[in-house]
Amino acid sequence: MKLMVTAGELSGDSHGGALLAALRLRLPALEAIGIGGPRMLAEGLRPLFPLEALQVHGLVEVVRHLPRLYRLLWSLEQALRRERPAALLTIDYPGFNLKLAGVARRLGIPVVHYSAPQVWAWRRGRIRAIARSVDTLITLFPFEQALFRAAGVDARFLGHPLVGQAATDEEAAALRARIGAQLDAQLGGDAGLPIVAVMPGSRPSEIARNLPPLLAALARIERAGYRACYVLPLAPNLDRGPVAARVAAGAVAVLVEPGAFLPLLRLASLALVASGTATLQVAMAGIPFVTVYRVAGLSFWLARRFAYVRHISIVNILAGREVVPELLQHDFTPERVCRTFLALAREPARQAAMRADLLAVTATLGAPGAYERAADLIAGKLSAAREPGRQAAPAPAPAAPPPGRGPDAAAARGRTP
At what angle do helices 348-362 and 277-284 cross, to 10 degrees? Predict the structure, then answer.
């Protein structure tokens, strides 16, 4: 039995790897093909294209990549015709994946989309595209299920996959020992300093935009008399050398620890976090934090112009109010970060109230085991779509796009994958 899977970012690759691992326990003979990164490749994905082929970020930045993305879309349509998978599993990355889902739907291939597009934040018109192109939509937040079902989409909330993810006692103890050893070498001991997580993001572009103002803010915080042990948990996809060099050029010691994200959540008292999935994980750990973020100027203007929500942090969106402070774009300055962080760090009562709010918000995200429940659903779809061991005859692949449908024509019409 064959499944095509496409992820467009490292977060999608993480979802895809976990889903494929759970699916193989249910369907040992499953053959997975598509686009993915190291996590999906480790679970046996046969790559049609590397994950990097889809990695484009920002609203404005995507424009210059349109011809390449449409060529890739056309190649995947040919692969769907040639390989005839029992189903297509698309993971997040809606601009591209929903177009591919539409192709699969026209070919009679069932489509499951994992991680609903954030239509509640902007681009609500995508709901109609989802209804046309997706058979089943698996949402990550409970309120999304009702939103999509009201539009006629078979939407299922099966729990958030981050629920229950945590480092072991041994992993946390090992990180604490490494932190202690480095502090002994650099500062002559930690003297009971609080540990503050510094999380500028997991993409090179996020590091470039978010890390310099964060480092400048830490220098101001230290000059204001607040002392702490600062730890930056480096994402596995990032090269430690350039990040460590940026940190070493700063005025405050920051320990760069590759792959230490989950263990750090067991140790940190406070955090400075770039907007994204990390904010949800920090919230689940009950760590009070400040959200920061910068993007290209035009991208930020467009997002503010067309967004339906007042907040950018998913914690605040889920709560319907500001639980954690947000410092975005022009408000994300070393001065504002210093002032906002110190107001939180020096008020234990405010930290306790925020911690209670964070835990209350994240308690709505279901029980552990979201990937397993999703795998049960996907395995059922695969079994219903095609009997085990039986493959349909492949449809012929067109040699070239029909007039008006190729990548150049689509780019000329200004449509974004």
Answer: 110
What's the CA gap between 69 and 323, in Å, rounded? 38
Which of 74, 67, 24 is closest to 49 using CA atoms? Answer: 74
In the CATH scheme, what is the code of domain 169-365? 3.40.50.2000
Residue 410: per-residue pLDDT: 33
Instruction: Report the distance separating Cα 101 and Cα 137, nearest Å.
Output: 11
- What does the alpha-carbon distance between residue 374 and residue 354 come to, in Å, rounded to a whole number? 32
- Domain spans, the chain: 2-163+367-412, 169-365
C-alpha dihedral (315, 364, 355, 165), degrees to nearest 10: -90
Among 165, 232, 228, which Cα is nearest to 202's?
232
Whether domain 2-163+367-412 has CATH 3.30.930.10: no
Percent of the chain that is helix, strand, coil (3-state, to 5): 50, 15, 35
- 185 burial via Cβ count (<10 Å: 0-12, 13-18, 19+): exposed
Task: Return all residues near 115 (Cβ < 8 A) that are at least 6 apart.
Answer: 12, 15, 91, 92, 138, 139, 140
Q: Which two tokens stand for residue 381?
A: 């779809």
Query: End-to-end alpha-carbon separation of the chain, Å?
Result: 29
Let me know if the fold of 2-163+367-412 is the same as that of 169-365: yes
Q: What does residue 175 show for φ and ψ, rounded to 5 degrees?
A: -65, -40
Q: Which two tokens stand for residue 9?
A: 């970012």
DSSP 8-state assignment for residue 63: G
pLDDT in tens, 67-108: 777 888 999 999 999 999 999 999 998 889 999 999 999 999
d(CA 37, CA 137): 22
Query: Which of 175, 183, 338, 191 lies closest to 268 in space, CA to CA?
Result: 175
Per-residue model confidence as pLDDT tens digits over 207-232: 999 999 999 999 999 999 999 999 99
Residue 244 has φ and ψ, to the nearest 5°, of -65, -35
Judge contact between 196 and 271, C-beta under 8 A: yes
Does 300 have pLDDT greater than 80? Answer: no
